[in-house]
Amino acid sequence: MSQAELSSLIELTAHLVECRRCPRLVEWREQVARDKRAAYADDEYWGRPVPGFGDPTASLVVVGLAPAAHGANRTGRMFTGDRSGEWLYRALYDSGYANQPASVGGNDGMVLTNAWVTAPVRCAPPANKPTIAERDNCAGWFEAELDLLATSTRVYLCLGQYGYHAVWRYLASRIDLPRPRPKFGHGVEVSLGESATVLLSFHPSQQNTFTGKLTREMFAAVFTRAQTLSAAGPPNP
Fold first, then answer.
1. Cα–Cα dist 11/140, whole Å
2. For each of the chain's 237 residues, which pLDDT tens digit applies?
3. Residues in Cβ contact with 226 at an 8 Å cutoff, skipping those fewer than 6 apart
4. Which is nearest to 154 in space by CA: 228, 60, 62?
5. Contact, 237 vs 201, CB < 8 A?
6. pTM of the predicted model as reported, rounded to 2 decimal places
7. Of 87, 123, 128, 160, which residue is 20 to 30 A from 209 by alpha carbon distance?
8. What are phi and psi of 83, to 5 degrees?
C-alpha cells in the first residue's frame, strides 16, 4: 500500500466513525451504549460506527455482517467482545494471521499480519438485522475501504451469506463475474481469475457454533485454504 493509500484509509476511518446517516441505527447503538449490559456496566461503550481492523497490506480480507450490540459496539474493534469474535480471532491466530488468540478491545495488543477484518454494515443493528436502506447507506464506506485494500487483496473470506452478497455487489460493479452467482455454502470458492478468490464460510454465530453446523475444524479449514490461495502472490492490477 502506498503512503497515499494508507493516508486515505486513515482519513476514511476518521470520517466513518462520525457517520449518522441511519437514524434507527444511530438511536439503537447509542441506546445500547447508555443502557449497558450488567456484565459490562463499568465499560465505556464505543457506541459509534466501527471501522475495519488489521494489516492495510493484507492479502486476506475477512467480511462479516455488522457489529454486535455488546461486542464491537462496546469495544470499537470489529468482531471483538462476543462469541463470534472468540472463534474468529482464535482461527486467525491458529493460522498465523494474529499475534494472540483473543481480542477483547482496541488496546489489548492484538496485531494482524496479512489480514483485515471488516463488515458491510458498521453500526450495530437491532436484532442483528439491518434494513436494505441501511445497508445501502453504508455501502459507500465498505466499497471505498475495499478499493483501498484491493491492490494487495488475494482472498475475500465471506462469513455468512450477508457478507457474501455484499462482496459480490462490490465486485460486480468493478469486474465481470460468473453468472449466475454461485450458491452460498461452507468452503465454496469462486475464482476471479488471476485477480482474487471469493471464499465462503458459515458465520461463527452462536446459532451455527452451538448447533454444530460450524465446527472448529471446519472453520480452521477455510483459513488454511485462505493461506494457500493468498500465497499465490499479489493480484494483477
1. 14
2. 676 666 899 999 999 999 999 999 999 999 999 999 999 999 999 999 999 999 999 999 999 999 999 999 999 999 999 999 999 999 999 999 999 999 988 889 999 999 999 999 999 999 999 999 999 999 999 999 999 999 999 999 999 999 999 999 999 999 999 999 999 999 999 999 888 999 999 999 999 999 999 999 999 999 999 999 988 654 544
3. 60, 95, 155, 157, 199
4. 60
5. no
6. 0.95
7. 123
8. -65, -35
Residue 195: DSSP 8-state: S
Domains of the chain: 3-230 (3.40.470.10)
Residue 200 phi/psi, 5° resolution? -110, 145
- What per-residue string of b and e applies to 74-95 under the rule 16 or more CB within 10 Å gives b? bbbbbbbbbebbbbbbbbbbeb
Non-local (6+) Cβ contacts of 185 within 8 A are 200
Could you give phi then psi for residue 77, rounded to 5 degrees?
-120, 130
Q: Of 235, 225, 223, 233, give the one whose Cα is nearest residue 62.
A: 223
